[in-house]
Amino acid sequence: MSQVIHLADKGNRQIETKPLPSDALIIVPVRNMVLFPGMVVPISIGRESSIAAAQYAVKSDQAVGILMQKNEEVETPGADDLSSVGTIAAILRYVTTPDGTHHIVCQGQQRFRVTGYVAGFDFTVARIERIAEAVVPDDPEIEARFMRLKERAVEVLQMLPQVPAEMVHAVQGIDSPTTLADLVAGYVDIKAPEKQEILEEIDLRQRLDRVLNMLMRRIDVLNLSRDIDKRTKASLGQREREYLLREQLKSIQKELGEEASGNAAEINDLRKLIDEANMPEEVAKQATKELKRLERMADGSAEYSMVRTYLDWLVEVPWKAPEPDTIDVAQARQVLDADHFGLDKVKKRIVEFLAVRKLKPGGHGPILCLVGPPGVGKTSLGQSIARALGRKFVRVSLGGVHDEAEIRGHRRTYIGALPGNIIQALKKAGTRGCVMMLDEIDKLGSGIQGDPSAALLEVLDPEQNNTFRDNYLGVPYDLSQVLFITTANVLDPVPGPLRDRMEVLHLAGYTQEEKREIARRYLVARQLDDTGLTPEQLEITDAALAAIIRDYTREAGVRSLERQIGAVCRRVAVRIAEGEIQSARVDASDLLEVLGQAKFENEVALRAGLPGVATGLAWTPVGGDILFIEASRMAGTGRLILTGQLGDVMKESAQAALTLVKSRAASFRLDPTVLEKTDIHIHVPAGAIPKDGPSAGVAMFIALASLFMDRPVRSDVAMTGEISLRGLVLPVGGIKEKILAALAAGIKKILLPTRNRKDLDEVPLPAREQLEFVYLDDIEQAVQAAIEHVPQAA
Question: Is the pLDDT of residue 57 over 60?
Fold first, then answer.
């Protein structure tokens, strides 16, 4: 509840009673408002000096001068902080509220100009010069402006909602141009500095022009607002209502020259990023088009976030052409040798690849595909290539990918759509000139969502991938500067057209010597670092490494070997952490305590010298392996029984081997009638593992021949090769992997088809020197080399 303060009701405040000079006026500074002559407005006062000034004016029944501060943030304004022209006002009422705030109701009377300030008062006092309004002559120009201003003022009032008719009549009844100009300027919604300029304008003609221009601008804003309202009135929901309000706000702020609100800064940032992205012309047009759409949207709409995310992807994907490669072939060779031991043929091909790229940077080099069992260093080779080129390395795992959209991206019409893995990897790399490894390309799947391998046909084709189109981006993207490297364990699942786009480099397994060298150079140091040990705290001897390789691992790569070395390091780390020891030296004799019993035995010891057992060589996706072929006979009707989960091709090899034995019964001095009354059972151990392929044909024949001749097969001999019904030995694949598996199993002699002799070039020389090779053209040569004490055929 407010109350009027009477002169005696001032509490304990001491009111200044010193008289003012005759040409002086009490000044009340105000923030962000202008009082015009003829206006009646309430003013809140809070400064002690302003309260004292108002109370003095009330007590002495004097007028006050209302002056606007130039800077509203100044708490105690001085002479330089106040405007020079203000309005003399009479205080009609002085009101205080229960919360202690003070208000005065003032009526503007006349303009004045400050000529100086008077000191010695508790409030601001200024010497002033009253500005009298000039007598308006019968000037047609002033009269025309007056009539025009009155028409526009009535027009504005009629456009505003809920304006009383009496106010319109009051404006129409004003007959003074000065009064009308001050009334319109005082009540119209414009900024305070603009009002101050009008207040300071003494010339009536110019003042009328200023007010008329200001009013015309307000009419335009109101017309825009009304047009927007008309366009959006139909079917207004909540979202449309928000849009209307935002559009009205934008139009009003634009007309007032104010800074645009809402998302203007965000839009400007996006526009700047688009300009700096160096996009191709087609892409830049698309980005600009989407940016304009974004400007017209309400930021609360679902489509706004979708378009914003799309633009974020467009500006964050690298468009700039990469810097030319600085390839030092000698340094690249050093990097490859430092990172990998062995793999000479593969490293030689990579050096050739880099040399050609140095001589012809703009050429389309081949897509390298590294094929080999797990753990042989395919991924780390890709990292070494990136390091040799000075490029960034990114890896895209394709294992288990069965949706084409994982490669090409999802269309933006779907909620949560994203670009494909290729574009995502490029964003992560931040450059188009990166090395991108497509890992496990043989593990791609397919389903109702499409075939990802078909989408890769364009990605891995240097003639096409310069215009690769991701479904999400919807614009062409140049992948020709990306160096793609793919990896696979086996090539069989890779479709032919995709395989045709790549140059295949085979990485077979390591020999035991190579594994020992890799362990000494890389694995031990890495595991020491992982377990927090130093070389002084733990030494693993070469004999211990050899024993781990021989007795605790059986693989083509070195992952299992590294895990076993890690187990040794952790065991020692526990003892050092407990304070039991300070350092340790692990030898082969210590492995039983650390790693337990040996997991693998020497396969030679498992081959008993019994007739009917032969050792074959097999290829698996994880490297080579040895395969025992066991044959047994019993009285029967000549049936052939096959067990061991054999595939169709392997079953046919067994049938061919039996037919070949029967056809050469005379050479082996066998009675054909005995064969007709004998059932033959061929078994391949490890029956839970599916087996297939023609390369066990020689081993099956030797097992049957040994059985019927009742002579054992030599225990240090292993064999591979396909047989024909004419007794020819045909070539097979996976020779390097098979030879390395035989060497690890203790084999001394290997029987190979003569036509596979050229494949020995891939086998490391130290491995070849430890083995004896017998080359087969005919099955008779296998019998002579594998079965003990075979008499010459008659």
Answer: yes
DSSP 137: P
Q: Is 600 inside a domain boundary?
A: no
Does 3 or 370 have the greater pLDDT score? 370
CB contact set of 701 (below 8 Å; sequence gap of 6+): 657, 660, 661, 723, 779, 782
- CATH number for 624: 3.30.230.10
Residue in 225, 453, 695, 715 annotated catalytic: 695
User: Confidence band (pLDDT; 50, 70, 90) for 607?
Assistant: low
254 is catalytic: no
Q: Which two tokens stand for residue 592?
A: 């039983």
Does 127 share its domain with 147?
no
In a domain? residue 396 = yes
- Same domain, yes or no: 371 and 256: no
pLDDT digits (tens, 9 = 90+) for 344-399: 778 888 888 888 878 877 667 678 888 888 888 888 888 888 888 888 899 988 88
Picking from 297-301, 472-476, 544-548, 780-784, which range would have the lowest pLDDT averaged per residue? 297-301
Instruction: Give the confidence band of 8 by pLDDT, cuts at 50, 70, 90.
Output: very low
Residues 523 and 488 in one domain: no
501 and 544 share one domain: no
CA angle 415, 416, 419 (to 5 degrees): 120
How far is 573 from 584, CA to CA, in rounded Å? 10
**Catalytic pick among 195, 347, 515, 738:** 738
Question: What are the two backbone dihedrals, phi and then psi, of residue 101, each rounded to the nearest 5 degrees?
Answer: -85, 155
Q: Is residue 80 part of a domain?
A: yes
Single-letter residue type at 666: A
Note down the domain range covering 291.
264-316
Arithmetic mean of pLDDT over the chain: 82
126-169 pLDDT, tens digit per residue, is 999 998 876 666 778 888 888 888 888 888 887 777 777 777 78
What is the C-alpha to C-alpha distance for residues 436 and 608, in angstroms, rounded to an integer? 51
| Spatial contact of 171 and 149, defined as CB atoms under 8 Å apart | no
Per the annotation, the verdict on 695 as an active-site residue is: yes
Question: Across the beta sheet with 772-776, what order do the strands follow?
Answer: 640-643, 678-683, 623-635, 613-620, 717-719, 749-753, 772-776
- Assess whether 709 and 631 both reside in one domain: yes
Q: Are strands 538-540 and 3-4 parallel, antiparallel or unpaired?
A: unpaired
Does residue 794 lie in a domain region? no
Instruction: Specify the pLDDT at position 90.
Output: 93
Note the pTM of the prediction, 2 decimals: 0.59
How many independent structural domains does the chain possess?
6
How do the residues of the chain divide into helix, strand and coil, expressed in percent and rounded to 5? Answer: 45, 20, 35
* Residue 753, pLDDT above cutoff 90: yes
Residues 698, 775: Cα–Cα separation, whole Å: 12
C-alpha distances out from residue 247 to 237, 244, 250, 252, Å:
15, 5, 5, 9
